[in-house]
Amino acid sequence: MYLLRLALASLGNRRFTAWLTVFAIALSVCLLLAVERVRTEARASFANTISGTDLIVGARSGSVNLLLYSVFRIGNATNNIRWDSFEHFAEHRQIKWAIPISLGDSHRGYRVMGTSPAYFEHYRYARTQALQLSSGRAFADDPFEVVLGAEVAQALNYRLDQELVLAHGVATISLVKHDDKPFKVVGILARTGTPVDRTLHISLAGMEALHVDWQNGMPARGAAKVSVEQARAMDLQPKQITAVMLGLNSKIATFSLQREINEFRGEPLLAILPGVALQELWSLMGTAEKALFVVSLFVVLTGLIGMLTAILTSLNERRREMAILRSVGARPWHIASLLIVEAFALALAGVLLGVLLLYLGIAGAQAYVQANYGLYLPLSLPTRYEWTLLGAILSAALLMGCVPAWRAYRQSLADGLSIRL
Amino acid sequence: MRLTMHRSLLTTLLLTLALPLAAAEVRELTWSEMVPADAPPQVTEPTPMHDLSQLADALAESAPAATQQSPAAPVVPALDGQPVKLPGYIVPLDVSEEGRVTEFLLVPYFGACIHVPPPPSNQIVHVTTELGVLMDALYQPFWIEGPLKVEQSSSELAEAGYQMAAEKIYAYELPDS
Q1: Are A186 and A143 in contact (CB under 8 A)?
Q2: Does the beta-carbon distance from A44 to B97 stay under 8 Å?
Q3: Nearest Cα to B42, choosing from B105, B116, B151?
Q4: Cα A264 from chain centre
Q5: Which residues fall within 8 angstroms of residue B60, CB to CB, at 6 or more apart?
Q6: What is the ipTM metric for this complex?
Q7: What is the per-residue pLDDT across A183-231, written as a single tens digit (0 to 9) for each?
Q8: Residues facing residue A201 across a β-bridge
Q9: Is the pTM above the cut of 0.95?
Q10: Rounded to whole angstroms, how far apart are CA atoms A39 and A287?
Q11: CB atoms A275 and B101 under 8 Å
């Protein structure tokens, strides 16, 4: 106990260097934990976003590409698929349900998705949880109704029955808007922690109505314009959609149906198993994750070596301190343990400060990260893996403390007393 | 002499103990055992790959969709309820938050080989597991152990096939090496 007090008193005497060392360790620990947390949360949110969908069908591109744009709203579709292809497979005897998806428009940076009521019924996330409406209802027959994701409603402060204008294209600031056809908010979904939160859902008819008077890639002018009332009266059957989510009657049939869709003669289609595409995505991300992890490990190592340097350089200045301790009866192992305790105390303070920094950082950046990257960072207790990392850092510090301890142990009693200053 | 007698006694004892255990032990299944012995060999007519006379047909969008190779392959009902272990590769269906695969299809070969049709339904096991398998480890084969459930194709909609609630999943290692 007196050893600990002595070590702390000695550190207090050199508090400026000690604080700097602690701060260096804290920053490195914070970085390591932050990288770890972002990595696990990114994986968890990817894994949570889709569940229970057996196949995703889209225009022929890559499986990761199709997964990203259809489910995570990242990137864009290469092509649309025809409505009759959707009908062909929706009526297939192996298919239990089919959700059509139509993408391409946005509202202030949030993607707009055209879909059918089947989406609210069959879409599942986070291991078989269904979508819930926190207020209002799903869109019905009127094409100009929109259901907001939780975050869209919160960030843009929208309420039920409010009217909003959708924009053409997916840029945050859009120059071309569908301002002649405003949509009315009829429902707001409960928070899911998935890209659904950042999506505006409209019916396929609504998507069709938006573009019904577009000609040659630009909005109609003058007399060619179609008003809201005229659009309502028109036949708004979509001719093409972007992707389809399929649920099968029997999972055993997944492969044969996938093959059948990929060999569909009507038009080139691609069917993917979400789980397999996710696995491909992760093996892609895995390399980057490992690189980040190794970098942050090296930063921690640098922090610890900084501590070692600080202690080692202080040894020389403290020869007198050691000598006095020895002369009043301290044994060599007392001196050695004093230095180990000092190293451990520095590392412990660094780790604690690092964890504190991490939580402050998460608390501060949570809303921003969620809004901009769709990543929810929870303020949860460290996981078992994080505890292991922290434990490993502390043991590394203990091990490093042995180096100055060994040197001090070897110095003779007379060393510090006969010093010539 | 005494020692050898002791040893043989011990061996007998061990054997008698082990015998009932061996009977209750899980059966090691091979994929070919999952096809009924009396199933007709699948003779598929070799489709002419380069028959130019059908090229127009193949290119025309009105041509019929490619036929499904084996809509409902026959299963072995005797395997129902039997505790078995089976080696195979994991095709993930559902992934938990921690990145563990909790529902997957077990197939006899890795990757989607697009040169031949996918495995027939009696060469696929639909497995659910509480614990899950780490997704990073899926490039290697696994042993799956548990009671096999055989679903007969009773209706139009339900596909015949094998299902299992896995009790144990562990990495497959080559017998020697």
Answers
A1: no
A2: yes
A3: B116
A4: 36
A5: A265
A6: 0.71
A7: 999 999 998 888 898 899 999 998 888 888 777 777 777 777 778 778 8
A8: A113, A147
A9: no
A10: 12
A11: yes
